[in-house]
Amino acid sequence: MTVAKPDESEKISLPCTTGGLFLYFLRLGAVGFGGPIALVAYMQRDLVDERKWVSKEDYLEGLAFSQLCPGPLAAQLAKYIGWLHGGVWGATIAGVAFVLPSFLMVLTLAAAYVHFGQLAWIQGLFYGIGAAVSAIIVRSAWKLIIKTIGRDYVLWALFLLVAVTTVWTQSEIVWLFILSGIIAVVVKAPPKPREKIARVLALTPVIGGVFGSFSAGTVTSIFFYFLKAGAFVFGSGLAIVPFLYGGVVGRFHWLTERQFLDAVAVAMITPGPIVITSGFIGYLVAGPLGSCAAVLAVFLPPYLLVIFLAPYYRRFAQNPQVKAFVQGVTAAAVGAIAGAAVILSRRALIDVPTILIGVVTLAALLVLKKVPEPVLILVAGAIGVLLRHG
Description:
78% helix, 2 domains
């Protein structure tokens, strides 16, 4: 006897409520280690395969949408799934629930760092963690190069341009990201008629103006700086690292290089997206209010994109110019990450012990592929404490 294959409507048989989605993303945000790829895999397993709250087709379309837009991949997908269920309210609930646990953890760690950061064991902890984080960033940059650039010579050229520029200037250059996207469009999918290119070029000053700098107090400066950063985090949450380094350390001098590396480390040992490092940085600069301003700002652009663009997604997702632009910007983002890996490694690998910690961490990532990154970071921190305070 042949059993009829259930259709898509029959697969989604379990009730999905707004409260249920909130609790699910709250739990995932609290225990979701492993990076963006692991988090989106958890969503597919839990929401598509087991609970059947989302159809496979909707999930895959949401994943593609999240990859096209700036913002941390897993958080973007969570908001898209929330939008599918409950529109604007659903996207808001899912986004808040997913980010809230890691934000509270980072807020707590930032407060402890400010109050106890001068203790010898804290300094030893981050002495070891910094070396491990630099190795993780190097490994992540290499994986992104293989995944996003491949053998595409145009993307390699854009990658090298931004990587070298990032190392040379030690700062982010937003215009290079936009220019990389435009170059990719012109070379890979030139629009017709040619006037369309001129329209894209005419819009770039508007983009720069919207996310430019503001100076109406420290908290306001923090908000608008992280708003700009959140609008250009393509390819990986790590793309925010070179953006923030150039502004937070080089331009505004809000943090020292050591404090910035510690902020990245804290984001890596907590669950959720790595851009949550914005909360740690905001706290060090302007306390809890600065932390809230930074986190709100960095997640606002991708949230608005879900709200306003998701309804029209199917119309432009396959547009060759849109795909080429995103490829160019992503190549630039990976180049910036690679440049940041070089810069941060110079700051973290300061002596023989830190070099050894970095090399061993990188080897562990390559050989022991199933070891969670937070475990490696904490082990490196413990070694740092023994070396500095033992």
